[in-house]
Amino acid sequence: MNETYKVAMGETIDRLEAERDDITGVVLTSAKKTFFAGGNLTDLQSVTQETAGEFFEEIEGIKSQLRRPEQLGKPVVAAINGAALGGGPEIALATHHRIAVDDPKVKLGLPEVSLGLLPGGGGVTRLVRMLGIREALMGWLLQGQQRTPAAALDKGVVDQLVATREELVPAAKQWIREHKDDETAAVKPWDVKGYRIPGGTPSVPKFAMNLPAFPANLRKTLKGAPTKSPRAIMSAAVEGSQVDFDTASRIESRYITELAAGRESTAMIRAFFFDMQTINSGKLRPAGVEKRPVAKIGVIGAGMMGAGIAYSAAMSGIEVILKDVTEEGAAKGKSYSEKLPAKRVERGKMDRAKADAVLARITPSVDVADPAGVDAVIEAVFEDYDLKKKVFAEIEAVVGPETLLCSNTSTLPITSLRGFSTRPKDFIGLHFFSPVDKMQLVEIIRGEQTGDEAAARAIDIVQQIRKIPIVVGDGRGFYTSRVFGTLILEGATALAEGIDPQFVERAATQAGFPAPPLAMLDEVSLTLTQHIRAEADKAAAAEGKTLPKGPGEQLIDTMVELGRKGRASGAGLYDYPADGPKVLWPELRERWGKGTEIPFEDLQDRYLFIMALETAGCFEDGVLTDAVSANIGGIFGIGFPPHTGGPATFMTNYEGGSAGFVARANELADTYGERFRPSAWLTERVAKGTLVDEA
Question: How many angstroms separate the CA atoms of 268 and 286, rounded?
Fold first, then answer.
């Protein structure tokens, strides 16, 4: 929806209006594979408070063009031949009849909410009038659902389906012929006097009674996160329902202008469009290495992680040897994969034959020689140096010289692990996240001697199993585990300071984190946190250093001594009753509660800033070399609030820019401790105006 579109659409509508008496109707379709892709995100990202007025007028101009076809007096039909997202459905909604090709690969939807925006080309206004407030919000707008043409037909947004693309335009012309004498066919229902929005508006008592539940349910869904776009969408829908169409359209324009001129949409467009585009286009992949899809892999270790990796590979058509030390362990690993497709079959998302084919690709094994001939091996055993050393000694004795050697590790430096490999250039880290079948991110770790070919092949494997690869350098904890550790430790530290545990948790969820730190600490287990700390202590001791132990770490030690080791052990910072949801352990307040009170915003900033500062430390240490991996890894791997655009963008997009970020970090350091003090490297980068985007 750029300048070329606006000029072409304007000229076309001018001609249609001039020749109105000589035409029977209009078919609107596309010569591309897609129907229409949507707004120009580069332009949207550049909107500022200073240019907001110009943007508002531009949006109003685009919408006035779309208003003219629906008031042409002749039937206008949209022939939807391919994907219609964002501006695509908005153009189609401005027609009198919508026909789509019945292709399940085609998606229709209004995903603007995922970019910090709202459908500002009439999407909110028209959907509310077509479907009613509730169905428009829940079915299309608040979650940005993308639906197949068949589902869109069922939801009332598409009126008719055809089997093939060749049938689209003929079907559209036929509908026009059949309705050329029907005066109502070329009139939108809401342009007819007395039209009532389905389900009612706030002026209808029955609807008004239920209206307070709308924002309450939205708040519950968002967990109090400060994301602006869903609230703006709801406001535009409800406010617009109480006025005429053109006034509602202007209300919609004002809301999208406010969002486009704000920092949130800038950040989210950067992360979810441009950063993802960078990854999907292969720009992080070493150049000059030919793509080599894998046909068969070996997964060593059939625990939950290994089983999840095996399932993801099998779902993508890859043969898997799933090896464990016992037949029982290997069989249990495969049974994990049996449950997942079974659920999909139950829900009608997969047929039985495909599910059986997925399971047939996984071969459980206890024979050390079975992985011979695989294209890649992914080791997924416990985080223990000696155990991994033993595993790779066995692997390298049987696999070929072309086999890629991958270690699924979350903390152990790849450079230290490759020491027992005879082919360090072919050795690389693949850090999957649990549960593997749901988590999209894979962190690829290059050791000091990892070659470009190994890195390229690792990226190819990750994308082949339909996951998102980021590439980072080596170091203890790499990027995601290192930064995630600061969040859960900050939560424990806040608790140890005497801050109420409920306050500790709520500050995180209302800052936009998907889960609070104490709950996440229980999930990863307090003993694993201790183990990671012990390994760090060993490494420091080898360098003649001693790491100080803070109040948060002391609290974790005490909890473990009390036998409360986390969710897996049945008790941690939370209790896990068999007959209900988890609840914070009541004794937390008795043991550590001091009634300490700090501003809510300060605790929220402590979580955000401790992670962002550690991200800056990863750039300083060479673990991170690009902002794309920092942002996408932060959002998809460790739950950094999506509305910020990720840790790197959070620093550069902060109020006052990177200088404002550093100033706020210094304020936190003065009040809560030196861990918030920006490093000399970071301060110098900010002074030069480069920070991390150019790192």
Answer: 27
* pLDDT over 70 (residue 336): yes
Q: Which residue has better confidence, 411 or 646?
A: 646
What is the DSSP secondary structure assignment for residue 596, as one 8-state letter?
A: B
Tell me how far apart the 2 most distant CA atoms of the chain are, in Å: 90
What sections of 30-132 are H helices per DSSP?
41-45, 52-70, 87-93, 123-131
Residue type, 630: A
- pLDDT tens digit sequence for 472-495: 999 888 999 999 999 999 999 999
3: how many CB neighbours lie within 10 A of its CB?
10
Q: How many helices (H) and strands (E) does the chain have?
A: 31, 17
Its pTM surpasses 0.85: yes
Nearest-5° Cα angle at 430, 429 to 433:
135
Distance (Å, rounded) from C-alpha 291 to C-alpha 296? Answer: 15
> Phi-psi bin for 58: left (phi > 0), alpha (psi -120 to 50), beta?
alpha
Pair of tokens at residue 89: 């459905």
Judged against a pLDDT cut of 60, whether residue 289 lies above it is answered with yes
- Give the tokens for residue 354: 């495909």
- Between strands 319-323 and 362-365, the pairing is parallel
- Catalytic residue annotation: 90, 112
What separation, in Å, do the N-terminal and C-terminal C-alpha atoms of the chain show?
33
Mean pLDDT of 677-694: 86
Domains of the chain: 3-182+197-261 (3.90.226.10), 296-472 (3.40.50.720), 480-599 (1.10.1040.50)
Give 359-412 pLDDT, tens digit per residue. Answer: 999 999 999 999 999 999 999 998 777 888 888 889 999 998 999 999 998 777
